[in-house]
Amino acid sequence: MQPNKPKYHKGIISYRELDGFNQTFFDQINAIYLGRVSYVDWIFGQLLDGIEKSPMSNNTAVFVSSDHGDFAGDYHLVEKWPGGMDDILTRVPLLARIPGGKEGHIVAEPVNTFDIMATMADMAKVNISYINFARSFLKQLNGAAGNASRTVYSEGGYFYHQEFEPYDPEQEATYKDPHNLYYPRGREEVEEGCPRAVMAKTVDYKLVYRPDGVSELYDLNADKRELSNLYGNSTYATVQNNMLMDMLKWMVTTGDVTPLHEDPRGLPKPPPH
Known about the structure:
By secondary structure, the protein is an alpha+beta fold. It has helices at 8-15, 23-53, 87-90, 115-123, 138-141, 172-176, 183-192, 237-253, and strands spanning 62-64, 95-97, 152-156, 197-201, 205-209, 216-219.
């Protein structure tokens, strides 16, 4: 475990009894994971080939992404973690094929998966009347560069007992069965906690703030594997403070927005006497 990392980096190893395995074991896990990714890439290629050969090629758009990644052996860890903001978990793939789009174009600048919705609406010329904070990346799909100054965000973790999955009545049997794959994770969540976290990421830096737990700051140009946590390092005090203030501004300005129109369903009717 690297120094100054959140405690789940140690907890996952302990609760899943991974400390007895050598580097070769984790390399094998990583290789299997990458092999499966390669297979999914091939399937996606088959799908695209089929679309190109069909009469729907000029009016079909395809987007492929994921809800989260997997440690898959990195840091000697496996699975995911609900409050983990490691790049291996939060930097998910995003591939798109649209009619007339720029073939082979790669966008290095960050986007959010929520932006897929805004992009689809932009393509379909659908006006979204309600307030949302997604941004269309249709211009990027046609060959433009992304926004190099943009900050993207992610949230996760738990504070309150009703948030923990092992306390969910529908999942209770899963987390009570010692033979179930998720049993160790459930024990760790309940016994060690899973502090809430908010991540802010730019092209150059990544900040993870945890009110109750280890916060993180990484220089992504010098430390792409996120091995050196710079949170609290005086050399990076300005970067840290600026990103914390930007995070506060984001949370205030993107909080709940009161709608102009009432829900047409109204209140439930009283029961008959």
